[in-house]
Amino acid sequence: MVCPAAPNASHSVVLGRPETEGIGAPCVPGLLGLGPPDTDELTETCTSLRPMSEIASNYSSGDDYTLEFLGYRFSFGARDFEERVGAAAVKLGLVPSNDLDPDEVADLVELSADGRIAQSRSALGAYLVRNWERLALVDGESLVYWLRKLVFRGAYLDHRVKEGLLEIVWDEENGEFAYAEPAGGRALLELAPTPSWRALQFRSDSR
Length: 207
Fold this sequence. Notes:
4-stranded mixed sheet; disordered N terminus; 7 helices; globular
């Protein structure tokens, strides 16, 4: 179930693998929810996430958005959430880079938080609405679900750095900063596979 938050309320998302996404789902004002994770999701994620008791506190950068997943409750300020959604869209190949204008960011944030775009503000938003039947599910994977999941994943990794459980290092081979275990090696969760929307990537000349 996916629906917009009530006026003047922060967005709350319960993350699990959805069967469908889009307009017309039953709605409870103020709550954005998805069904419980399926067995594959639990298996995939629990092999990489440490139990809640091993983390001193949940990730928090504000109270504009809340994301709940596998017993974790992460809260985000608007700016932090926007940046993480943009990074997630790049990671999934939905957009070529995070060089997004404010209207493009706003459309991606609305899609991630509400599961839909009520009225597009940008060419990117119009592309998403116009091509939603093709974009919503790719190889059985939900775009909204994965945008939210990567927001969670990035916050989880950053929180582990804050708690001293991971380090940020420069990966010479790939030419990028990476998360590393103190004992050495890349963090498994960072290396977890993700589906790709690159074949349907939005570009300025997309139709």
